[in-house]
Design brief:
- The structure holds two protein chains of two kinds.
- Helix content of chain A is 36%, strand content 25%.
- In chain A, helix 2 packs antiparallel against helix 3.
- The longest helix of chain A has 22 residues.
- Chain A is an alpha+beta fold.
- The mean pLDDT of chain A is 93.
- Chain B is of the alpha/beta class.
- In chain B, helix 6 runs parallel beside helix 7, helix 8 runs antiparallel to helix 11 and helix 9 crosses helix 10.
- The longest helix of chain B is centred in the N-terminal third of the chain and has 27 residues.
- Chain B is globular, with a radius of gyration of 21 Å.
- Classes of the chains: A alpha+beta, B alpha/beta.
- At the A-B interface, helix 1 and helix 3 of A face strand 4, helix 5, helix 6, strand 9 and helix 7 of B.
- The structure holds zinc ion.
């Protein structure tokens, strides 16, 4: 079963209402290599197994990312505050951000 | 009373007694007789010190005492290159006094920190973020295609932008001022980054960020663009800036980013859990109140409106969880105390126009009778 991912970006010095609304990224609709890359990043980040991220007092202008992943048998939503210390999670966020932007751009056309 | 006109002199180190001259000039013109006398005496001191400083610069031989004075006002900047990684601060690439190199982001950060430092020193007699000469550290080239800037509690961090939506974040002086002002707010008021206090925290950064730019450009309130982050967007984005203090809600309207949703008045207050309760959204309301007050007061926004906001930020009655109304009431009181009835009216009207009533009946200045005084704020108390 391919992954369905909801992704939203809150806050930041430049806080945008259009990016805060969670966007659905359905790996079934992506090219095979793209979907594979995202699925590998989700696995590498141990998205379902990892501990709940800690939330310290918010830093001014740091953003919060919401990532919800559904793999067909389980689903989990994590909220991550910048700066993200974990390399694998940061790589996942960067990848999702690019995809989300591309999808929003396509949807806006 | 810590900043009343009756005793405007502040002595912090025994070797200087410089107070904002604009404030003193007004007191000298409009205050009561004892206030006028105190202000005039201070103005004389102030002028002689400044004159001596200028003379010393010309003759190249400052007396020992003045050397100490001057040393107190020197910024200590270091710009670091994060090398597109996340470890902070990264490699130091330009320290205070070093010449400009080829890296645009490094030079812009260095100059922007200098302009912000100079603004707070010249206009508000403030010595850096903590008013005790704190070094100014900034990292550029943070992470990869990073489209943000933030204050991490110790230093400023700037991304290069992704090249699609954003250019480099050092390109806008008010953004550098905005981030540095977060440090000042944390030092003075420690406003919570949540709800109305968080929106005030954001607004104070926009206010002083914009004032840094206006001061640098020598623009009066009526001439300024009142935009935050002008020039950050690439040409692909339909918008002029991140925010507009003059007309909140009009800075951008883009198919991808959405439409600027900042309200200008309480009627549009956004109730949300996102972004710590919409701190970057509802900041439009106090932003607009500042703009209205500054334009009504006329002249340079940093002279009167800026002073009132700055004194409010340093007001010991400003609580970390302050509401818009509590902050507004303090600005009205500070306007009255420092600049008289006309300024009080202008500030109260500005808040009223954004839907916040600061009239005596509704005004409940927090802690007014409680006498709560955080110990560390005493350092700027009147000697
Ligand atoms: Zn901010």
């Amino acid at each position: 079963m391919s992954l369905q991912i909801d992704f939203g970006i809150e806050g930041g010095l430049a806080a945008f209402p259009g990016l805060a609304k969670p966007l659905r990224i359905d790996c079934a609709n992506l090219a095979k290599d793209e979907a594979g890359r995202i699925e590998a990043l989700v696995r590498r980040a141990d998205f379902f197994g990892r501990r709940e991220p800690a939330h310290a007092a918010p830093l001014p202008d740091a953003r919060t990312y919401t990532i919800g992943v559904d793999d067909g048998s389980q689903c989990r939503t994590l909220r991550l505050d910048e700066p993200i210390a974990d390399d694998a999670m940061r790589a996942l966020v960067a990848e999702l951000r690019e995809h989300a932007l591309r999808l929003r751009r396509a949807g806006a056309r | 009373m810590r900043n009343g006109p009756a005793a405007p002199q502040r002595h912090r180190c025994g070797c200087r007694a410089i107070v904002p001259p604009e404030l003193l000039r007004r007191i000298a013109q409009n205050g009561t007789k004892p206030q006028r006398e105190a202000a005039l005496a201070t103005l004389a001191t102030d002028h002689s010190l400044r004159f001596a400083r200028a003379t010393a610069q010309l003759t190249g031989g400052p007396p020992r005492r003045l050397a100490l004075v001057a040393a107190e006002f020197v910024p200590r900047r270091t710009v670091f290159d994060a090398g597109h990684r996340e470890a902070l601060p990264g490699t130091p690439v330009r320290a205070e006094g070093q010449r400009a190199g080829r890296d645009t982001e490094v030079n812009e950060a260095y100059d922007g920190l200098g302009a912000t430092f100079a603004f707070f020193a010249d206009v508000y007699d403030r010595n850096s973020i903590d008013d005790a000469g704190m070094p100014l550290d900034a990292s550029v080239h943070y992470s990869v295609r990073y489209d943000n800037a933030f204050w991490n509690g110790r230093q400023m961090v700037f991304g290069d932008g992704d090249g699609e939506i954003f250019n480099r974040f050092t390109a806008s002086l008010d953004v550098i001022g905005h981030e540095l002002a977060h440090g000042i707010t944390a030092d003075e008021a420690n406003l919570a980054y949540l709800g109305q206090a968080g929106a005030l925290n954001e607004s104070i950064s926009d206010v002083f960020g914009s004032l840094v730019k206006q001061y640098r450009l020598g623009q009066a309130a009526a001439e300024a663009d009142w935009l935050i982050g002008e020039g950050l967007f690439t040409r692909r984005v339909k918008g002029v800036a991140l925010r507009s203090m003059k007309a909140p809600g009009t800075a951008f309207d883009d198919p991808v980013l959405g439409k600027d949703d900042q309200p200008a008045t309480m009627a549009g207050y956004v109730h949300t859990t996102a972004d710590n309760g919409g701190v970057h959204t509802n900041s439009g309301i106090p932003n607009h109140a500042f703009y209205l007050a500054a334009v009504a007061l006329g002249g340079n926004a940093w002279d009167v409106a800026g002073h009132v906001w700055y004194e409010t930020l340093r007001d010991r009655h400003l609580r970390p969880n302050a509401t818009f109304r509590q902050f507004a009431a303090l600005t009205v009181r500070n306007a009255a105390q420092s600049f008289g009835a006309a300024a009080e009216r202008a500030v109260a009207t500005a808040w009223q126009d954004v839907g916040i009533d600061t009239s005596a009946r509704s005004r409940r200045v927090p802690g007014r009778t409680a006498g709560r005084a955080p110990a560390r704020r005493g350092r700027r108390g009147i000697a």
